[in-house]
Amino acid sequence: MTAFVGMPAFPEASSSAVSDAQLRYNLRKATHTIRAKRAAVVGEQPDWAALRAAGAAIKDRTLRHLDVYLERLEAAVTAAGGTVHWAADAAEANRIVTDLVKATGETEVVKVKSMATQEIGLNEALEAAGIRAYETDLAELIVQLGDDLPSHILVPAIHRNRAEIREIFASKMASWGRPAPAGLADDPRALAEAARLHLRERFLAARVGISGANFAVAETGTLVVLESEGNGRMCLTLPETLISVVGIEKIVPTWRDLEVFMQLLPRSSTGERMNPYTSMWTGATEGQTFHLVLLDNGRTSVLADEVGRQALRCIRCSACLNVCPVYERAGGHAYGSVYPGPIGAILTPQLRGLASPLEESLPYASTLCGACYEVCPVAINIPEVLLDLRSKVVAHGHVGQRVAMGAARRVLNSPRWLSVTQRSAGRLRRWTPRRLPGPLSAWSDTRDVPRPPKESFRQWWAASR
Amino acid sequence: MVGGEPMSARDRILARVRSALSDVPREENPDDVPVPREYERSRSGVDVVELLVDRLTDYRAQVREAPDVAEAVMEALTRRDARRLAVPAGVPDAWLNSVEAIRDDPPLPNVELNGLDGVLTGCAVAIAETGTIVLDAGPDQGRRALTLVPDYHLCVVRRDQIVRTVPEAVERLDPSRPLTWISGPSATSDIELNRVEGVHGPRTLEVLIV
User: Fold this and answer.
1) Are B37 and A54 within 8 A, CB to CB?
2) Taking the model in full, what pTM does it have?
3) Which residue in the set A70, A165, A278 is minimally distant from B17, CB to CB?
4) Staple B30 to which of A50, A65, A283, B113, CB 3.0 to 4.6 Å?
């Protein structure tokens, strides 16, 4: 799979998506469908607001004492026969997993859809070590076979319609394993059946499974994976060795806390009362060898920011994507990361730092309408973090903006400068350009340049007094 | 750093966490961070059996209330023309009557499981509001692969195993056991958000409430 490297900043990256009518149709249909389903099942839960408050508070408690809970989780998993590894960054995590797979002597692994392993580019790292990773989630399979990038947290192939998926299956399945049935139709049922047949033998033969986790219970060492298709159960249950790569923020303190999140996540995510399958296991289970890789990879930098810290409450439900007017038009790829949409706009710049024009542009990929905050099941105030990040971008040196703000400060601070500027602007109004020159064009690309008035209020006041 | 050895990733991450949390007062304990639990642990409303049936049906699971287990099992199997059934070691003979039961004792190889017509189990807990059956690998449920590989899962739920809400279920469950929460048959919505039942798990889930 191609990685998100060297991505252009959000405005350029989104422009092709915005002009792609098919993509916009797919996105609109998908986001509006899930949005309506979510609203219906959240509406029938009389204590939703109380659950949301509890969810946010449990995550805050975890984050404020993350060191305590990490050590507690490690002890519980170890006591239950699992082995815990710690990875400070992506390279370290990839090396740990690669070594663990190599130690089994296997050259193939089956994978459950996992944001963390996508974030660290695990498939590419394994490939470089001669190990083939097979994605088993239907949407991830579509993305992998199509040599494509995921565009949504929950439904990564949201940008593909059935005809495109049929084409990918018919032309690519053969090179990855069992070919697609001859004369494959493009109705979803036939496509799902093709995926079932393609992957069944692989599951039965798999010796190593790799997963992430939705939750890790510090008190008991229990890991939790929610899914729909059963591919997760296959990968978690059938292989002799299971390796789970889990971000350090996925912890919840106690077993009882799951009673909150098992209500919040399915309803927010797929808009179901409950997802078809959830697996919970503690340590080495049913004779399996179990490894837990705890991943930092920038999370401690997010934790250090008192405003931005709340982004680590995220349970990856993707409700914020489905209500976002910007995501609906720009699609997931423009965000240049496995975390698209509003949550990506605050998570990516914090995880990676304001490292390139892409990360600097993400806090601006929002209208600040606040719909994301409203639907967030753990009450992450995304607009607040966006604004905070914008101020950091400016301080960090968004050059054009800094120059413009510096000039504005000088002009607005001095009555003399203001009056000179206003008078000359009034005189030159006939020559007001439609687009500003040079670096200032970035501003006028998306706005009409206003025509200055003939005279300023001060001039009018002085003349008519 | 101890004894001049290089810091392990574990120590580095824990040190970074602690330095990131320098704003948290030293004397603050985890339990000092308030967690309001004003959500409802239980609720009143329609009969839990009625609710469970409604929710399971909504997922397009097949569900029936059956006074006699053996008779209902036989009838379900006849309807599907399912003959050879995987059965965990602890399922009572009284459920089986003249069914061709292949006991998972010793454990059946996965390939053999794949060739059977279905699996018959009990359950640990059922959650009415969400239409969920929870298996905890108890004697009448068996190991996890047993209810995963065959294409048909017939599950017997006793009335006293049914609770209304998720918190009531979590309270009854033991996290040290492997748990599988099942809400309807395997499904996907990955293709244009159209729900398709049956991808990798059993494509048919049938529940008998006894």
Assistant:
1) yes
2) 0.90
3) A70
4) A65
